[in-house]
């Protein structure tokens, strides 16, 4: 096949030189809901075209590449005293896969156990392109299903205003678990 970015022959949808040049993650940290840290790996504007493949068949391969470069690398360096659960937000399957589940799966490691379908919104309103006020007025109403681990990492693809992750972190608090931090693929500046 040919690389999507440079059109050279490649074994992957994005060739290794292009991955190294364009997709080397840079960790960025922000705080939401006054005390929740969100670590993200890319600037939204830098990988916007790739993120737009979400919910298309091509998106499966693109998210797999991004997950490996960002989330898998993070998990390889992450250590903790006890096993930690990672929950992908709203990991419903669309176009045959869930993009947040792909990111979460890449965290599988000695210290992190990914779970799927544990953190889902009862209200499936889309926040895409909506104002912060709209988001606040239409809460997602998350439920968190039980698991053995006490400490949680939340996984989402894009952090914009932080409304979704704030609501999900509140849900974890209600479930009497401890949220260590959130991981997002990209942040909107
Ligand atoms: Zn290339």
Structure notes:
- This protein has 6 helices and 7 strands; from the N terminus they run H-E-E-H-H-E-H-E-H-E-E-H-E.
- The protein is α/β, with parallel strands linked by helices and 189 residues long.
- It has a single domain (25-187), classed as Rossmann fold (3-Layer(aba) Sandwich), CATH 3.40.50.
- The protein has a 7-stranded mixed beta sheet with strand order 1-2-7-6-3-4-5, sandwiched between helices.
- Helix 6 (163-174) links the parallel strand 6 (151-159) and strand 7 (178-187).
- The longest helix is centred in the middle third of the chain and has 21 residues, at 57-77.
- It is globular, with a radius of gyration of 16 Å.
- The model has no long low-confidence stretch (mean pLDDT 93).
- Bound molecules: zinc ion.
- The site of zinc ion has 7 residues, from helix 1.
């Amino acid at each position: 096949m040919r690389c999507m970015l440079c059109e050279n022959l490649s074994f992957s949808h994005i060739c290794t030189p292009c991955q190294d040049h364009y997709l080397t993650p840079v960790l960025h940290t922000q705080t939401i809901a006054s005390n929740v840290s969100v670590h993200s790996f890319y600037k939204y504007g830098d990988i916007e075209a790739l993120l737009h493949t979400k919910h298309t068949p091509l998106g499966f391969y693109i998210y797999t590449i991004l997950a490996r470069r960002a989330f898998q690398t993070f998990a390889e360096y992450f250590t903790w005293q006890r096993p930690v659960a990672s929950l992908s937000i709203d990991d419903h399957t669309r176009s045959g896969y869930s993009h947040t589940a792909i990111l979460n799966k890449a965290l599988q490691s000695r210290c992190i156990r990914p779970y799927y379908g544990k953190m889902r919104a009862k209200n499936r309103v889309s926040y895409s392109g909506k104002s912060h006020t709209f988001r606040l007025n239409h809460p997602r109403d998350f439920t968190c299903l039980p698991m053995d681990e006490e400490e949680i990492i939340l996984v989402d693809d894009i952090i914009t205003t932080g409304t979704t992750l704030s609501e999900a972190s509140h849900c974890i608090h209600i479930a009497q678990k401890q949220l260590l931090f959130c991981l997002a693929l990209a942040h909107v500046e």
